[in-house]
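Ops channel
N.P.: pipeline sanity check, posting one input/output pair.
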């Protein structure tokens, strides 16, 4: 899934992965956290879901800088990447807001509810 920011101020790509149990999901989160640290700097953000981490990835020869936030809620991991982050000075806040909505939707689904959380 992709969220296109208003104007030409970047976009957010979503990647979701479900695991058979919390232990496997926790290990997968730790692996993603370790992999994300390579060549990136951690961005201080409030915790979202059961655990989360955010990194600012430097400009690559083929792409603009981005911010990646990985969130684990129960047995699901959501990785969200704000592409072209430098186009929007509020990109970290936008990403945080979208991550909070995604986490709430995942929690609702885990409880057997129809996910209704939406960005406000």
């Amino acid at each position: 899934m992709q969220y296109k920011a208003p104007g030409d101020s970047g976009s957010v790509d979503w990647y979701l992965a479900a695991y058979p149990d919390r232990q496997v999901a926790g290990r997968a989160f730790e692996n993603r956290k370790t992999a994300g640290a390579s060549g990136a700097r951690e961005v201080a953000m409030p915790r979202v879901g059961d655990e989360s981490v955010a990194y600012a990835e430097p400009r690559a020869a083929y792409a603009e800088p981005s911010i990646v936030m990985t969130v684990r809620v129960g047995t699901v991991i959501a990785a969200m990447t704000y592409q072209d982050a430098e186009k929007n000075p509020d990109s970290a806040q936008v990403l945080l807001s979208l991550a909070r909505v995604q986490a709430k939707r995942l929690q609702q689904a885990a409880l057997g509810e129809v996910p209704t959380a939406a960005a406000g």
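N.P.: looks fine end to end. The chain is about 30% helix and 30% strand.
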